[in-house]
Specification:
single chain; about 130 residues; alpha/beta; Hypothetical Protein Ychn, Chain: A; five-stranded parallel sheet; globular
């Protein structure tokens, strides 16, 4: 039985994105099976247009330069890295319906599903996190 990490991404800021993808890629690199359920503003993290323009909290704009100076990958790059490491992306069907978004608005490889889809993965997860 493989070790599993289940992550819920429900917030859509740049700090949230770095937390989600840092944990996801670290877990995948250490042989965990990882799934991320993107819901509400969290869908911004995998939105083709929005994920390169995520908001920085007010008063923290100087940190953007720190990410560049520390050679930290961009959010779109982290999305690609996570996908290359077989991190499973689940886009919340209900939220997509409410927001009028189709699967074509998101990066390739997103599985569209509801809470039951995520719960099926998470029911025997070793670690479950919410950001």
């Amino acid at each position: 039985m493989s070790k599993k990490v289940a992550i819920i991404a429900s917030n859509g800021g740049v700090f949230d994105a770095y937390k989600v993808f840092n944990i996801a890629t670290a877990a995948a690199a250490t042989d965990f099976e990882v799934a991320i359920f993107f819901t509400f503003e969290g869908l911004n993290l995998i939105h083709k247009e929005a994920n390169g323009q995520l908001s920085m909290p007010a008063g923290k704009e100087h940190i953007a330069a720190g990410f560049v100076n520390a050679n930290i990958p961009s959010i779109p790059e982290l999305v690609g890295m996570a996908q290359e490491m077989d991190v499973k992306f689940i886009g919340c069907q209900m939220t997509m319906d409410v927001m009028g978004l189709g699967n074509d608005a998101f990066v390739d490889g997103v599985e569209v599903g509801g809470a039951v889809t995520f719960l099926e993965f998470a029911k025997d997860a070793d670690i479950t996190l919410t950001f």
